[in-house]
Design brief:
phosphorelay sensor kinase activity, kinase, alpha+beta, phosphoprotein, phosphoprotein phosphatase activity, 260 residues, binds adenosine-5'-diphosphate
């Protein structure tokens, strides 16, 4: 009996997202440089979850899905909406960044209370971690209680890194998030037990649209934009983003921010 309300929420989110996506595509297409590659790639990535949701909605409308199956279907739809939502966020970022503005969007610096920030950040991963039976362990240096930064940008960088750690790791693995203060810097490290990245790919993964061959399967549903955007946001925060990886045995991404 709770299904109709949840479905309505999903449908609302979905409509909102599709409208936002359409706006972003128009903005990108209108921008001066040639963005056809990017638009084509994103269009392709976005089509898969949209088709999946469309089919499921139709199946529900046609009464093909039994009451018992509705919960499971909703779960699948929620998963597709997550993917769409992440692609939308990336498209928004890129639209803003590529508008050829003289400066990048200004930082909205504020005092961020780490506890609250992490609670919000980590709870957004409940769903995807549960799906893959992955654990996330957190280790925070007790010296780090607050930091001055643009909370939204920091959230987007860490979200991308944790999403990747989950996406490029098998089921039943652990992701380690560590936060420490070292030599005037705050270091966020995200370590996974996943597929790892070959040395020759380690520099390229920060390039726009670059994806390691192996990840180009529809299941991971990426766009090759996450790290490009994360790197650019990191520069805006006057930090550094680095990767270290042992191919086949996992990766560590380190985000270093100035401790002000
Ligand atoms: P996307 O994940 O959408 O493909 P990203 O820019 O986030 O794009 O990542 C670029 C590529 O870097 C990915 O396609 C993948 O090949 C590789 N990659 C990123 N994070 C990891 C990770 N934690 N482990 C292994 N490979 C990764």
């Amino acid at each position: 009996e709770h299904a109709p309300k949840e479905l309505q929420t999903l449908a609302d989110d979905f409509n909102e997202m599709v409208a936002a996506l359409a706006d972003s595509f128009t903005a990108l297409e209108k921008s001066e440089q040639d963005k056809s590659n990017l638009v084509a790639q994103l269009g392709h990535d976005i089509k898969t979850p949209i088709t999946a949701i469309k089919n499921q909605i139709e199946a529900i409308q046609d009464g093909v899905i039994s009451k018992e199956e509705i919960d499971q279907t909703l779960d699948q739809m929620a998963f597709q909406v997550e993917r769409l939502s992440s692609l939308t966020k990336q498209l928004m970022e890129i639209t803003i960044m590529e508008k050829a503005l003289p400066q990048s969007p200004a930082n909205q610096e504020q005092k961020v209370w780490l506890d609250q920030f992490l609670l919000k950040l980590l709870s957004s991963f409940d769903y995807i971690l549960r799906k893959k039976q992955q654990k996330l362990t957190l280790q925070v240096d007790p010296k780090v209680k607050t930091l001055m930064t643009d909370e939204g940008k920091l959230n987007r960088i860490l979200t991308n890194l944790i999403e990747n750690a989950s996406k490029y790791s098998p089921v039943n693995t652990t992701i380690y998030l560590k936060i420490e203060a070292v030599n005037g810097q705050i270091i966020f490290s995200i370590k996974d037990e996943g597929i790892g990245i070959k040395t020759i790919d380690q520099q390229k993964i920060f390039d726009r649209l670059y994806r390691v061959e192996k990840s180009r399967n529809p299941e991971t549903g990426g766009s090759g934009l996450g790290l490009y955007i994360s790197k650019s946001l990191t520069e805006q925060l006057k930090g550094e983003l680095k990767v270290e990886s042992d191919y086949g045995n996992g990766s560590i991404f380190r985000l270093m921010l100035p401790e002000i």
